[in-house]
Amino acid sequence: MKKNRVLKFASLLFMSVFVLTMLGMTTATAATSVAPKEKPYIGYSKFDTGGIGYKEFGDLRGAIYGAMKEAGAEAYPLDYIASKTGLSKSKVADRINRMVNKEYLAPLMSINVNDAKFFPYYVYYAAIKLKPGTTAAEKEAFTKKIRDNKIFCTSYETNGDFDYWAGYHVDSWESWYKNERPILEDDAVESYILLPASAQIRHGMSNAYAVPEEAMMCDVAYPSNFDALPAVTNGKMTSEDVKIIKAWNKKLPLEKQFNWKKIAKISGKSEKDLISLLGALRDSKILLGPFWAFNWKALGVDRHFFFVQLKNATTDSRRVDMVYDFARANDFNLVYYHSDSLIKFTLIAPEGLADINQCRKKIKSICGNDLVHIYEADEVQQMRWWTRLWYPEKFNMPGGVYLYKD
């Protein structure tokens, strides 16, 4: 009896701690100030993370984005880029401003949700199939639900075996049931497959910190492929642009990442503090970026999705080997692993920068006899990427924002 009472007490104590912890996670709000009528983010509070949290990330990103908006290319390390490319500073500045103003690319700094301890969410995607006979108007209406609903983040409309690959963040099954389920079970939807992101290896050519064997942590995945950009984009990008992209679009030494003097002057923060903050965010592995993310539709580059289904009997050790192999497969500019799903891998390859047929062969080679099926689809449009809006009327504006309080 005494033993049973002890076990019961221990169980109650555990549940109490769990409930209090979850309450603390789901009611925490932003450490930064918010507009009077703006609903605050959930979960963006500084927990015991060694002094680095969402406030610090927001402070640095705000300073850099603000300087880029006001000063354009002058916020970049023009001397450094010129020395690496052999171009003049004025030429580098002109080409950067042109690429941004033409909406071919946008600077991106985001949270690496794998490592941000203050980010109490699970990253989910859903591969969605609409019912046969769905009209163009009905699909457009459903697209707008995903595009304009702030519970969604990185999302794509596609054409093929699935009609969408929609991303969102959830802190519990209950919040998914309340917020995402009603949309995923829209009258137009025939079926969906939930894809929790067990390992986010690469997104948009940026490698996550967790990629194996000392792969480039913040660098773009396949810089050599950029040589094809002038041909693939029909001249929208030039060989000069490629040189500039290769020079800056990677993890640079702290002092050479930006024109800190210009950013400090515009933001009112000291150069020393800004550089120190970037270093701390890198060391804590919270930061993804900074780098240029590409607006592939504006560049006229098509991207192809692969959704890989494996045999149920495939062992975890075998799938981990596949994770490593896909991490080394640089032709995929997105690599996600979903351990708890019918589909185990989501992969994206840009046509022209990668050979789609060779990518398909590579998947079959990596998966071998464990492969059941490769579902495929072509990108129609990208609606968000980690709070960046990509549609023309709102290009490069902050947008999709995780979860809001009711």
Characterize this entry briefly.
The chain has helices at 2-27, 54-71, 78-85, 89-101, 136-148, 173-184, 229-232, 239-248, 260-267, 271-283, 296-299, 316-327, 356-367, and strands spanning 105-111, 122-130, 152-160, 164-170, 189-196, 199-203, 206-207, 287-294, 303-310, 334-337, 343-350, 371-385, 388-389.
Q: Which CATH-level-2 architecture of the domain at 122-210 and 300-394?
A: 2-Layer Sandwich
- Sheet of most strands: 11 strands, antiparallel
Series of H and E elements? HHHHEEHEEHEEEHHHHEHEHEEHEE
Global shape: globular
Task: Estimate the mean pLDDT confidence.
Answer: 81
Protein traits:
23% strand; single chain; 11-stranded antiparallel sheet; 38% helix; 13 helices; Alpha-Beta Plaits; alpha+beta; 406 residues; disordered N terminus; 13 strands; two-stranded antiparallel sheet
Can you describe this structure?
By secondary structure, the chain is of the alpha+beta class. It has a domain at 122-210 and 300-394: Alpha-Beta Plaits (2-Layer Sandwich). Helices cover 38% and strands 23% of the residues. The chain has 13 helices and 13 strands. Strands 2, 3, 4, 5, 6, 7, 9, 10, 11, 12 and 13 form an eleven-stranded antiparallel beta sheet that branches. Strands 1-8 form a two-stranded antiparallel ribbon. Strand 12 and strand 13 (388-389) form a beta hairpin. Helix 3 (78-85) crosses helix 8 (239-248).
